[in-house]
Structures are given as C-alpha cells and as structure tokens.
Amino acid sequence: MTAGNDEPPILDQAEIDALLADAADGGKGGGLERIVSAGLVAYERLPMLEIVFDRLVRAMSGSLRNFTSDNVDVSLEGMVSLRFGDYLGGVPQPAMLAVFKVEEWDNYGLLVADSALIYSVVDVLLGGRRGTAAMRIEGRSYTSIERALVERLVAVVLEDLSEAFQPVSPVRFRFERLETNPRFAAISRASNACVLSRFRVDMEDRGGKIELLLPYATLEPVRETLLQQFMGEKLGRDSIWETHLAEELRLTDLTLDVVLDEQTMPLSSVLSLRRGDRITLGATPETPVKLRCNDVALFEGDLGRRKDRLAVRITRELREAAEA
Description:
Layout lengths: L12 H8 L10 H7 L10 H21 L4 E11 H6 L5 E8 L4 E8 H11 L18 H21 L8 E7 L13 E11 L2 E10 H4 L3 H4 L12 H12 L6 E3 L7 H5 L17 E5 L2 E11 L2 E9 H6 L1
Helix pairs in contact: 3-6, 5-6
C-alpha cells in the first residue's frame, strides 16, 4: 500500500519480510537473525587467547605422547563465538562432557571429547594394536573403565591448560564431574556468549576432537590482559612520555597560601560587617601557620622575617602526618 504524497509509504508484510531477509546469505538467515547474532562478542577482540591456545597445543602434544606412549599430534582447528545454548543443543552424541571449575576466577568451563577420541584413547591405553581402527559399539552407555580413562585424559588436558594460562594469570583448572547428557552440563545461561576452541588429536590412524568451551563471564577477570596484542603490552603506556611528563610536572609553578588563623562565624555576623570593623585573630607570633595549595594543607611552619620580607620556616609536613 502507498499513502498520499505527503505521508511516508506504508509497507505490507511481504515488503517487511523482504527488507529483513538477508540476500547475502542466500536465504539461509534473515536480517533479524543477523541482528541477534550481532550481539555476540567476536573472539578476535581477545587476541591473547590465540597465544594461550597455541601454548596449549604444544603442551598437549608432549603430555599426550607421555600419556598414551604413542605418537600424538595436536592441532587447533579453529575458534568461534556462539551462545551457550546453541552449542549445548548441537553437541554430537555420544560424547563425554567434563565440567571444570576455574578456582581463581570463581567460574566454570566445559571440555568435550567426542566418541572417536574416547574409543581411540581407550583402545590405546588398553593395548590395542596399531594400524587397526578403534572398535565402536553404538547405542550403549560408557563403562566405568572408559569413564575412568577419560577422566585421566581430562586431567592431563586441564593441567596443560593451567600451564598455558600461566603467563596471563596464575590459575588452576580443577576437574569437577563428567557428564554424558548435555542437559546436566549446563554451566551458564543459554543466552550467554562463549568462545569455543576445537582441537584435533591424531594418533597415527586413530584420533578425535576435543572442544573447549569458555564463557566470556569466566574470562572476565583477565579480560584486560587478553585484550593485549602481545605478551607484556602496556595498552598505550609510553615510558618516554611518562618520564617527560614527570620532569615537566616538577617545573610547574604552584601558589602557596599562608594561613594565619581560621574562624567560624555565623552568617548574620558576616553580613553585619562594615568598613572599619575588626576581626580578632587568635594567632600569636609563636603560633604555627599552615601552608596550603588550594584546599590541601601541605606544611606547617613558623612565621618570621628575612631581611625586609615576611618569611615562613617549614617545621612539619602535614601530608605525611595525614597518611600515617
């Protein structure tokens, strides 16, 4: 429908849907979906995470070789940002979800091992032959032996994760429980943003994936550090300018006021003052005076005379007394 010439056009439902549709996605997602997704924080805003996970890859490659006594190759497949509910609803089954707590940050994270990695680790640790694919029996729950072996694997990975975060912040990732049902592994609200890292673990012709999910609320205590582009960045601080500013501040001129005495008078007495009236000060020649800069009392001293000028000899620093 179209209104008159003086009124803005009125769109019908079909035209509204066409405006909200995203032509660039080829019909896969609409404009509303892009608006909702735009609220997520991209992991690129925390560039130090890539350095941390690169350290984790190197640490895991060595520790998993010792853990399995096999040739293990670990690689980082990618990092994405998504909502916690979207990830939890798409966890492939069967899988094991390890819930761990970050004690220093007082929050939680999630470590997920897929079935391929679980069967491969169990097969290797129990003496399976090399060159044969791990045997899978679909449709059954994991045994207590398999759960115990996966807990040992998770403990090794969390130890490496703690080591990888050491340059950023001393922290310990403590394993809490192992779940097979995603509903029981809820550590955050479904709408909360998280960063997901996928690692590929290859053991010759066997292997699988490990997924590490960290809510942004968990990373909030070290967010300032993770914003750095490289380790040791000072986020805009320049030591040369700091030194120059300190030197110039020492050359700044300040006005010091010598206060002989202070009195509190009612407003009516102040308003009744006229020319010729006198205000009697309680100070004597022996009374110490205060030196102030604006309203800050800095020193206390004795009033005297030097040649033909009034002078003050500083006897005490009031700032140190106030701090003490």
